[in-house]
Amino acid sequence: MITRNGLLLVFWFLLDKGFLAPLHAPPQSRMGREQHLRGVEGLGLRRHVASGVQRVKRGWVWNQFFVLEEYMGSEPQYVGKLHTDLDRGDSDVKYTLSGEGVGTIFTIDQTTGDIHALMGLDREVKSYYTLRAQAVDMNTGRPLEPESEFIIKIQDVNDNEPKFLDGPYTASVPEMSPGGTFVMQVTATDADDPSYGNSARIVYSILHGQPYFSVDSKTGVIRTALPNMDREVKELYQVLIQAKDMGGQLGGLAGTTTINITLSDVNDNPPRFSKSIFHLRVPESSLVGSAVGKIRAHDLDSEKNAEVEYSIVPGDEGHMFNITYNGHSQEGIIVLSEHLDYETKRSYTFKVEASNAHLDPRFLHRGPFKDTATVKVNVLDVDEPPVFTKTSYTIDVYEDTPVSTIIGSVTAQDLDASTSAVRYSIEWKRPVDGCFDIDTVEGTISTTEMLDRESNRQHNIFVVATKVNNPLLSNKVTVTVNVLDVNEFPPELTILFDTFVCENAKVGQVIQTINATDKDLPTVGQKFFFKSPREIRNRNFTVRDFGNNTAGIVTKRVGFQRRVQEYYVVPVVVEDSGYPAQSSTGTLTVRVCACETDGSLLSCTAEAVFLPVGLSTGAVMAILLCMVILLVIVVLYVGLRRQKKRETLMSSKEDIRDNVVHYDVEGGGEEDTHAFDMGTLRNTKAIKENMLRRGTGSWSDVTTQTEINGSTPTTEGSTNIIRDYIHQRLQENHLGFSALPYDSLATYAYEGDGSVAESLSSIESWTVDGREDFRYLSEWGPSFKTLVGILDKDKADPPTAEVEES
């Protein structure tokens, strides 16, 4: 640079002194010589003379001067010269200079007009200066030329090297990238004038960082030079970039910067266990959820690419454990998921798999990104307390249980390998716990006093089991004792059923379903059993227990007939399941009825048992009301008739009506059959029933007697003949011409078949035992008390037959 500046100074010096001249020399006039000296200082005006007017050439105009920057000489640097055509060299013209830097940077010789720079200039600081020049008369100070403005321009030299304003730089590129991958772009700036020469033309080159990276010489773009650079081999690279001006030629200025390039991680490495088998130990008393141990699979990648997912391979014995991931340490923590028992199993072996959570599809061809290791967990024995066979015990006991009765037991075992003996005790917490005692060896629980359900229905006691060889180890369990009520009431049938059986019923047909109730508590959960009495053999019906607290009455035969037997009584025994068991016997009345072929009821004897199907509630109520009214009318009518008969029978013998005929002739007794035919008024039905009631004969005797009477003539007391006889006499009294014109009463000894009171006639006195007590007739009502008095009065007299007709 100094050499070049020196050459320029020599060039300007020669030009200023006139050693260099143009090829065509101008005329050697005064004005021509000055114009030649100024060169590019300004353009002069020519003076023209035409038609007597002289035209003068103007020489006081300047555009610009040039001065080199960074002048290093000892003398002031010459800039240029001011001159006017009016200056004849006699020092009468004075040159003045004003503007930027006058006096400090620039100075002028007032006589000669030479301009010098007093100091070195820097174009990068200020590229030009604007000044004003003027020529005045030295003596008078009158301006000879107008003030003229010009520019002194600083000419550039290559004095500034390129600079990287943003350096040093940091960049990153993914590892395993192909060659030529873009990294970043750097730019350097040069303060020199880009329009003058090559001072500002920059070329980039890489000084350090090869062969990994390259840089474009014109654009400054940095790219990878090698493919598949591995971060796990080398992660950080420092690259030194140079920027040189003058197009990179010799003598150009250069600047450098550093770029720190980091290879960013990609998931190109699978996790790997450091060993194939891990040995862990855990005490059998460890709680569920506690950590058993740690294992780790190493991944050379970083951040999320190094995250590992741990899992227990299904199968083997890994169901007892779980595994979790610690993101900070990248470890797998094995956690206990179930209780361990050294006496049951002493070791567990399973496999653990480690795999990457985030996979990169570009590297899947390298194989599976996972690894497997075996984990063996050894269970350590711990001395444990005894263990009860149940978590809790429940005992039911009746309140009348005698004292010292064993009501239940508990069992605890020492599961350790040493197998110590166990002792039992009751933990006293409340006074009521004193009602029980426990055998210290067997664990049986017994009562120490009578239990009262009314005072305490439930007792909760705690039984403690302690190891003999280590009394500090114990365990306890809750025993609940429920005091049960004693079974006091027998079950009963819900209602006394009256049912029916069809004449066309089949064998095994269920004709009625029954159930039972019990007054004992609780009502829920009671169990009843139904059966027929063992001492009674019923050939018609049986009881079938359904097992759901209900039973059915089942037929055992066919051919039920109303005219043979209308009613059957079926006894049913019902028993509960209480303690002690209670039972009762109920009866079920079965009525024989006529039914349709499908089993629907038609009628039972003369009355229908059930109302017609399809009647509304109102219709049923109306029918019932009518039946009640008819019943009341019948009762009133019967009552009036009985009252009237009572008055007639109690009539005195002194009745003044002459239609009453008295027969006072006393017969000869039962053996006198000539005076009166006793067989005509004899009631064979009454004889049979009296014999059964008094126990004077058997049923076979009565049957034989009835058969004889049925085959004997009227004198033997045929029922039909007697009925016809009385009916005939009634017709004669009511319709005959001999009937009296007022009310009359005809009384006969025969009461008719089916009379509840039986026959009251003394004609049948032959069947009466003289020792018979007739006082039982008083229970039939007031009407029979008079009869009892008559029979008691005359029981010693022979019987007489009296027929009164009025």
What can you tell me about this protein's structure?
The protein has 806 residues and is of the alpha+beta class. The protein is built from seven helices and 44 strands. The strands form 13 sheets. Strands 35, 37, 40, 41 and 42 form a five-stranded mixed beta sheet that branches. Strands 3-9-8-5 form a four-stranded mixed beta sheet, with no helix packed on it. Strands 10-16-15-12 form a four-stranded mixed beta sheet, with no helix packed on it. β13 and β14 (221-224) form a beta hairpin. The termini are far apart. Mean pLDDT is 77; it is low at 1-57, 606-613, 652-660, 670-676, 680-716, 762-768 and 798-806.
Brief characterization of the structure:
The protein is 14% helix and 31% strand.
Helical content stands at 10-25%
Determine Rg (CA atoms, Å): 75 Å
- SS summary, helix count: 7
- Structural class given helices, strands, pairing? alpha+beta
End-to-end span in angstroms? 189 Å
Shape: elongated
Mean pLDDT: 77
Work out the strand percent: 25-35%
Largest sheet: 5 strands, mixed
Strands, count? 44
Task: Label this structure with key terms.
about 800 residues, alpha+beta, 5-stranded mixed beta sheet, 4-stranded mixed beta sheet, 44 strands, elongated, disordered N terminus, disordered C terminus, transmembrane, cell adhesion
